[in-house]
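Changelog note: in this version the structure field was regenerated for every chain. One regenerated record is shown below for reference.
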Amino acid sequence: MYMSNESLTFNDLPQVVAELRDEVSGMKALLLILQNRPTQQRENRHRPVTPEQVAEYTNIPLATIYQKLANREIPGSKPGKRWVIYLDEIDKWLEANRKNPIPLTNEEQNAAILASHKRKPKKADWQTDPIVESSRKVNVANATTSKPKAIAETDITPPTADAANDTDISN
C-alpha cells in the first residue's frame, strides 16, 4: 500500500486510487458476506407456561410455586381455573430477587460511584436570588429578638436662603 505520511504527487494518484478501489471492493465483499449470513432467531420468551413448567424451569417445588402465585409474589394471572404465567416474566422475577447482583463493568461502576457521591457546590457557584439583594436580606433571628434601633441623624441640612444667593451669575 502506498498510504503513508508522505506527500502525494500527481504521478502517484493513479496507484493510490487503484489501491483505494481494491480496498472498497474488499469491504463490499465482506459486507455482502455478513448480510447473507443466517441470523440466529431469538427464542420467543413471552409465551405462557403452566406452574408445573415453572417448577421444572426454576427447580422450585410445585407447592411453593402455587403458594407464591396465591401471595402474588410471582407474576401471573388466573383468568379462569388455571394460572397463566409468562416465561419472560419469570426470568425478570428471578433477576429482581437475586441476592448477588450481576457484576458491573468498570464504566458502570464508575457511573454508579459518581452518581452516589454528590458534592456540595462551591460557595462561588451558589446563585443568589436576583430579586433580593444581599444587602437587603434581614436576619430573622436578630429581627425578632432585638429592640428597634433609633434612626441615626444624618448630615443632610436643608438649603438656606444664603445658598441661593451664592450662585454665581456672571455674564
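Spot check on this record: The two ends are 95 Å apart (CA to CA). The chain is about 45% helix and 0% strand.
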